[in-house]
Q: What sequence folds into this?
């Protein structure tokens, strides 16, 4: 007789405490401070759930949970309109002192 276990333990956000307070350490997207539950699943069906000990940061883009102390700082404020420079090939904003686009490599 062959038996295998299909299940696992995962984290699911229960409640958003603060929205957009940090950045994801993996993908750089906005991250929210959330209360979360740990969920035991058996054959992809939740069987047991219990609350996490402390709030964590959660990225909706890559679904990563990480401690608040590891959160990347929010993006710097944008430059004034007269100082902005845009790449003519990829249309992304580039800092005014750059001679080449850091995204596509074309000459500015």
A:
């Amino acid at each position: 007789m062959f038996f295998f276990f299909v299940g696992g333990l995962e984290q699911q956000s229960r409640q958003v405490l603060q929205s957009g307070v940090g950045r994801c350490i993996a993908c750089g997207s906005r991250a929210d401070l959330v209360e979360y539950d740990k969920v035991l699943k058996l054959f992809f069906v939740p069987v047991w759930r219990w609350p996490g000990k402390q709030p964590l940061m959660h990225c909706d883009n890559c679904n990563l949970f990480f401690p608040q102390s590891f959160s990347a700082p929010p993006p710097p404020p944008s430059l004034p309109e007269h100082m902005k420079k845009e790449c003519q090939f990829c249309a992304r904003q580039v800092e005014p002192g750059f001679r080449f686009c850091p995204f596509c490599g074309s000459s500015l």
In short: Residues 57 and 94 are 29 Å apart (CA to CA). The chain has two domains: 7-70, 76-108. The two ends are 68 Å apart (CA to CA). The beta strands are 7-23, 30-42, 45-51, 56-59, 65-66, 85-86, 93-94.
